[in-house]
Amino acid sequence: MKLIDRIALILVIVGALNWGSVGLFGFDCVAFLFGGQMGTFSRIIYSLVGIAGLWCITLLFRDYDHRD
Q: Are 12 and 53 within 8 A, CB to CB?
């Protein structure tokens, strides 16, 4: 797995955990840590997570050659 794939997967996991906390507890971790939903850093994090999600779509359609 390439480095960019791992970074994208980590960001998607962060996004999933954040949405889980919003759904279960009504608490937005990213907004709390980075200055509210409309804060500059929060918007950057949200954007990176969204881009990572789009990147991870490509993981579904890749044909991996398993050579060990």
A: yes
Are 5 and 59 contacting, i.e. CB atoms less than 8 angstroms apart? yes
Query: Does the model's pTM come out above 0.85?
Result: no
Q: Where are the domains of the chain?
A: 3-60
pLDDT at 7: 94
* Alpha carbons 68 and 66: distance in angstroms, whole number: 6
pLDDT (tens digit per residue) in 46-66: 999 999 999 999 988 887 766
Which tokens is 4 given? 């960019």
